[in-house]
């Protein structure tokens, strides 16, 4: 069984969804997914083929070589790729979202002209340098320092959990450039080439999202021109607005879409398994406790679908969607954990082996309420947006 989309959607999105689904089924079979997971790696050759379908242009305007921003289609691509795990969805996000979406929303005219056509072709990959050893959710307290010297910014400090730092063309890096100012007036986003002099990376061992390493990154007197400031030199100390803007709203959807894809894959697998595994003379799906677990999981999965695409349509129409994207990230990440654990129970001992995908999907789903703005941080955002005060 493969759970199908149940919501009405534009015809071109359905066509793209079907194309990506066929691509995944044909090119990313289980034995390859297992090998990528074990080696913490993603398939460069398949990603190239994916880029040739044009999907990296879905977050980029036509005037910059993209297909025109189409958030619903881009979210559907992540959903379908994530059914095979993070191995293709991850690099797609590094290109179309960390790169294409952020530069489209926040880049200077020069950055847009230089970077967006290459991002649309899938030729550039970005990494996110937000977290630090002592900084998780509280991003305004980043300690990595940027000092202006003439026409250059000299960067010193450390980032942690920087996924893809060892192969990214640019690290989209949040730094403090005015230590004596209030924190929200001290932040700057800067594009640091991954191979710049003074950048060193070392991988961190982790159990989830193993399409690549997440790394510790050290910046030791790394010099970049002021033009590397995202938005151009005038955006020095102006990153707080970029952190809270449309790019962040779409970022929450991108994490939610991954989660939804993983949860769908987990349920697909458990659903089939329950009809094949026979105990006490019948398929275990015939035992009420098992059937109820599956039915509850599928009902919650459908609720996730509605929240995800409702928020994606709002973002696509450029309507205010801070509330809906936070609710989608919160609900889908937390519900994804429930679905993972239910499917794990249904598949019994085999869920703890590597014979199926469930073990990886459980590992990945358990991490989703933590990464990309934790569930607690989404609750804080929503309490603030709804002006809940004591
Ligand atoms: C595999 C992986 C890949 C990652 N990739 C990247 C990446 O590419 N780039 C990047 O920048 N980061 C990345 N991260 C880091 C990730 O985004 C952070 O883990 C996340 O922001 C949470 O930060 P933290 O884990 O340090 O938690 P903390 O902020 O230290 O929080 C710990 C706990 O306390 C809770 N908490 C903290 N403050 C509050 C509060 N005010 N109110 C209520 N609860 C609170 C949190 O919800 C959480 O449960 C990655 C992490 C992993 C595991």
Task: Describe the 3D structure.
By secondary structure, the chain is α+β, with helices and mostly antiparallel strands. The chain has three domains: 11-124, Butyryl-Coa Dehydrogenase, subunit A, domain 1 (Orthogonal Bundle), CATH 1.10.540; 127-241, Butyryl-CoA Dehydrogenase, subunit A, domain 2, CATH 2.40.110; 245-385, Up-down Bundle (Butyryl-CoA Dehydrogenase, subunit A, domain 3). It has twelve helices and nine strands. Strands 2-3-7-6 form a four-stranded antiparallel beta sheet, with no helix packed on it. Strands 1-4-5 form a three-stranded mixed beta sheet. A hairpin with a 2-residue loop joins strand 8 (278-279) and strand 9 (282-283). Helix 1 (11-27) runs parallel beside helix 4 and helix 10 (322-346) runs antiparallel to helix 11. The longest helix is centred in the last third of the chain and has 31 residues, at 246-276. It is globular and about 80 Å long. Bound molecules: flavin-adenine dinucleotide (FAD). Flavin-adenine dinucleotide (FAD) binds at residues 127-131, 136-137, 161-163, 206, 208-209, 214, 367, 370-372, 374, 376-377, 380.
Detail the topology: elements first, then pairings.
Blueprint: H1 11-27, H2 30-39, H3 44-52, H4 71-82, H5 86-106, H6 109-120, E1 126-129, E2 145-149, E3 152-163, E4 170-176, E5 187-193, E6 199-204, E7 214-225, H7 239-243, H8 246-276, E8 278-279, E9 282-283, H9 288-316, H10 322-346, H11 358-367, H12 375-385
Parallel strand pairs: 1-4
Antiparallel strand pairs: 2-3, 3-7, 4-5, 6-7, 8-9
Helix pairs in contact: 1-4, 4-5, 4-8, 5-6, 5-8, 8-9, 8-10, 8-11, 9-10, 10-11, 10-12
Bound molecules: flavin-adenine dinucleotide.
Flavin-adenine dinucleotide binds at residues 127-131, 136-137, 161-163, 206, 208-209, 214, 367, 370-372, 374, 376-377, 380.
């Amino acid at each position: 069984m493969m759970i199908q989309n149940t919501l009405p959607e534009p015809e071109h999105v359905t066509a793209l969804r079907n194309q990506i689904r066929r691509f995944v089924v044909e090119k990313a079979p289980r034995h390859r997914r297992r090998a990528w997971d074990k080696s913490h790696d993603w398939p460069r050759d398949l990603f190239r083929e994916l880029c040739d379908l044009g999907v990296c242009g879905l977050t980029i305007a036509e005037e910059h070589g993209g297909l025109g921003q189409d958030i619903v289609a881009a979210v559907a691509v992540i959903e379908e790729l994530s059914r095979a795990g993070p191995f293709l969805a991850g690099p797609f996000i590094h290109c179309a979202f960390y790169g294409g979406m952020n530069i489209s929303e926040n880049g200077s005219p020069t950055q847009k002209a230089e970077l967006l056509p290459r991002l649309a072709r899938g030729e550039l990959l970005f990494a996110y340098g937000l977290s630090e050893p002592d900084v998780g959710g509280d991003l305004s307290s980043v300690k990595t320092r940027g000092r202006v010297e003439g026409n250059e910014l000299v960067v010193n400090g450390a980032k942690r959990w920087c996924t893809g730092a060892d192969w990214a063309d640019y690290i989209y890096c949040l730094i403090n450039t005015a230590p004596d100012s209030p924190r929200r007036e001290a932040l700057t986003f800067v594009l640091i080439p991954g191979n710049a002099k003074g950048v060193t990376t070392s991988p961190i061992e982790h159990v989830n999202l193993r399409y690549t390493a997440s790394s510790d990154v050290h910046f030791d007197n790394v010099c970049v021109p002021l033009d590397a400031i995202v938005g151009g030199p005038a955006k020095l100390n102006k990153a707080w607005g970029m952190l809270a803007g449309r790019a962040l709203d779409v970022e929450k959807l991108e994490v939610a879409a991954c989660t939804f894809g993983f949860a769908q894959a987990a349920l697909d697998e458990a659903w089939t398994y329950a009809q094949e595994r026979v105990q006490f003379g019948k398929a275990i799906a015939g035992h009420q406790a098992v059937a109820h677990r599956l039915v509850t999981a599928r009902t919650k999965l459908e609720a996730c679908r509605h929240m995800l695409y409702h928020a994606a349509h709002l973002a696509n129409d450029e309507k205010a969607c801070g509330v809906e994207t936070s609710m989608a990230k919160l609900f889908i990440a937390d519900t994804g954990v429930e679905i993972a654990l239910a499917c794990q129970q249904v598949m019994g001992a085999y869920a703890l082996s590597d014979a199926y995908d469930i073990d990886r999907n459980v590992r990945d789903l358990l991490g989703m309420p933590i990464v990309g703005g934790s569930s607690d941080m989404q609750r804080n955002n929503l309490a603030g947006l709804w002006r809940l005060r004591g």
